[in-house]
């Protein structure tokens, strides 16, 4: 009897654990362009801002259950994009060449709802690796993060789709001190995207 009383508070936790599940989601989407301030240290020297062009993106997400509402999310993605300079409305843009943009992220997802449909919000932090297709420039890693939201729709116990919109920010500024000996880190670009993926859960 005493043992039963001690185990009674664990029953709701055990029931909750039964509805949590791991999810792996291959996805594909489209990421819009973003302006890069000309003070960013990405190897270009232009008076006009450099632009990261829009392009398709694809990747994989792994969601590890913490409880029925919270998940730890690991995400990796790749975008084969290009750099260009847009000097103005009446001036043709100048193509600078191709580059691969890889994201390696970790963060948390919060979901709610009952049944087959679960809205969610997500935030992550990690690295963005930009690898320009230029012999004179090396690949560089930058601090980055994402924030977004969407919906999961399950058609069966173990299969569903994930639809979401997400924004990615990348801090492209290297550390330096100006003439007033102040640290500056303002060269940040935002890249919005939309994606869809197939959820496999267990």
Give a structural overview:
With 202 residues, this protein is mainly β. It has a single domain, classed as Porin, CATH 2.40.160.20. It is 8% helix and 58% strand. The chain is built from two helices and ten strands. The chain has helices at residues 2-7, 10-19; strands at 23-31, 34-36, 50-52, 55-65, 70-85, 94-111, 117-132, 140-154, 159-171, 188-201. An eight-stranded antiparallel β-barrel has the order 1-4-5-6-7-8-9-10. A hairpin with a 4-residue loop joins β8 (140-154) and β9. It is elongated, with a radius of gyration of 21 Å.
Write the layout of secondary structure elements.
Blueprint (H helix, E strand, L loop, with lengths): L1 H6 L2 H10 L3 E9 L2 E3 L13 E3 L2 E11 L4 E16 L8 E18 L5 E16 L7 E15 L4 E13 L16 E14 L1
Antiparallel strand pairs: 1-4, 1-10, 2-3, 3-5, 4-5, 5-6, 6-7, 7-8, 8-9, 9-10
- Tally of DSSP β-strands: 10
Return residue spans where pLDDT drops below 50 for at least 5 consecutive residues. Answer: 1-18, 174-185
The average pLDDT value, as a whole number, equals 81
CATH architecture: Beta Barrel
Largest sheet: 8 strands, antiparallel, barrel
Whole-number count of domains: 1
- Measured by DSSP, the beta-strand proportion falls in over 45%
Structural class: mainly beta
Number of helices: 2
Strand order, sheet with most strands = 1-4-5-6-7-8-9-10
**Spatial extent as radius of gyration:** 21 Å
Label this structure with key terms.
about 200 residues; mainly beta; Porin; eight-stranded antiparallel barrel; 10 strands; about 10% helix; elongated; disordered N terminus
């Amino acid at each position: 009897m005493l043992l039963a009383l001690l185990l009674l508070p664990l029953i709701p936790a055990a029931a909750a654990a039964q509805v949590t599940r791991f999810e792996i989601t291959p996805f594909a989407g489209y990421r819009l362009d973003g302006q890069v301030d000309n003070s960013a240290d990405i190897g270009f020297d232009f008076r006009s801002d450099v632009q990261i062009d829009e392009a398709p993106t694809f990747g994989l997400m792994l969601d590890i259950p913490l409880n029925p509402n919270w998940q730890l999310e690991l995400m990796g993605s790749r975008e084969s994009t290009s750099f260009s300079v847009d000097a103005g409305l009446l001036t043709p843009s100048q193509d600078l060449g191709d580059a691969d943009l890889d994201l390696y992220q970790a963060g948390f997802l919060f979901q709610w709802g009952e049944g087959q449909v679960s809205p969610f919000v997500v935030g992550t932090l990690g690295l963005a690796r930009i690898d320009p297709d230029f012999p004179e420039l090396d690949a560089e890693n930058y601090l980055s993060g994402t924030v977004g939201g969407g919906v999961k729709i399950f058609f069966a116990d173990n299969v569903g789709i994930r639809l979401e919109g997400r924004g990615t920010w990348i801090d492209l500024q290297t550390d330096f001190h100006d003439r007033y000996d102040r640290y500056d880190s303002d060269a940040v670009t935002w890249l919005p995207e939309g994606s869809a993926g197939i959820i496999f859960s267990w």
